[in-house]
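Interim report to the steering committee. The following record documents the input for Geranylgeranyl diphosphate reductase, chloroplastic (453 residues).
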Amino acid sequence: MAASSPLQNPLKTPFSQLSIQKHKPCFVKPRRLSVTANHPRLYGRKLRVAVIGGGPAGSSAAEALASGGIETFLFERSPSTAKPCGGAIPLCMVDEFSIPLHLIDRHVTKMKIISPSNLTVDFGSKSLRAHESIPMLRREVLDSFLRTRAGTAGARIIPSLVTHLEIPSSSSSPYIIHHTINNSRQTLAVDAIIGADGANSRVAKSIKAGDYTCAIAFQERIKLPDDKMEYYQNLAEMYVGDDVSPDFYAWVFPKCDHVAVGTGTVCAKQDIKLYQRGIKQRVQNKIKGGKVIKVEAHPIPEHPRPIRVRGRVALVGDAAGYVTKCSGEGIYFAAKSGRMCGEAIVKASDGGESMISEDDLKREYLMEWDKKYVSTFRFLDLLQRVFYGSDEAREALVEVCGSEYVQRMTFDSYLYKKLAKGDRLEDVKMVLGTLGSLMRCKIIGRDMEALKL
């Protein structure tokens, strides 16, 4: 930045006195910073960190930062809206993130998985333990709660659209955030940034974090007649088949007084409305008489970004690409990554007393995240490639899910967020059964095609 800029020493200026200026964005690749025994101390002030995005990832990061003594700014462009989402969270998240029970709309204890040929498997009615369920909630409710809690912890919540970032060329210069509040252009200087601004992350683009493949999720919220809603009281349904998605699944998830009916795809995004019509056709008798009260669509990342930390900027949640294949789960991993990143900055900065570096973020956040979750992401990626490629494979998937052992292992992994340790003999039986189902369904599928001809 030019020496004549009025923001030459912005970090020494109180937030309330920062002037509104228009600056030309400066996108300079930051130098790689090396780890030193002692980082520069910040005399007379605390480390300043901006979190861009106020969903589960950003709010959890802001709460961890503010609770740890960091001067924290949480930007959210649309506090009254929320990302389209099925709304399922793992059971462990309720305690781990202290989610109040009154926020939960439904406790799902039964699931049905329906194959392309309408083979239906009850998933959970026998394999869930008495105290277990899948909590279902609305994202607008969860997001608002987490943002409010971050504010209570000391984060300053700024309802503003971030337009661009100025990237510093040295380890001591600040990042300048340009944003607008009520059409008023403003700037804020900070020491570090956490990008939690979703799949189309502006922060990721600013640090040249690389591209990733995105799916599109589309869902309609449908208010059902009371007798129809009773059917979905504690039941969620998942449908697979080329008619509802060529590479994912479609769903009917219960909410407080309505259901969410939706689907997603990566390879045929232009046909998403066709697949939405497909799932509504499959469930037409169950939702007959229902009224659509909201239509939602949103991009969903399919794999982690090539770069998740650069300079003193870290990406979390969807911005980092933390959505699992096969299940499409993202809420827990968003909140967890945000919290881990916030805690990493608190640790590296000695509670906000010292400057941090790129290597601190890589060591305290990125390496710890990968060590904890990379195997889960790789395993679910493998499952999606095996089972979601054809209707024959999807038939095999549903058939395999009929095994109580498979269901128990699935729930142990999903509800408690760690790969379950199984019985070796049962594992061998599961592998052999899976191979048998794949071979059998492939043969049946070939025979069916021959009959069509």
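The chain has twelve helices and 18 strands. The committee is asked to note this result when reviewing the revised timeline.
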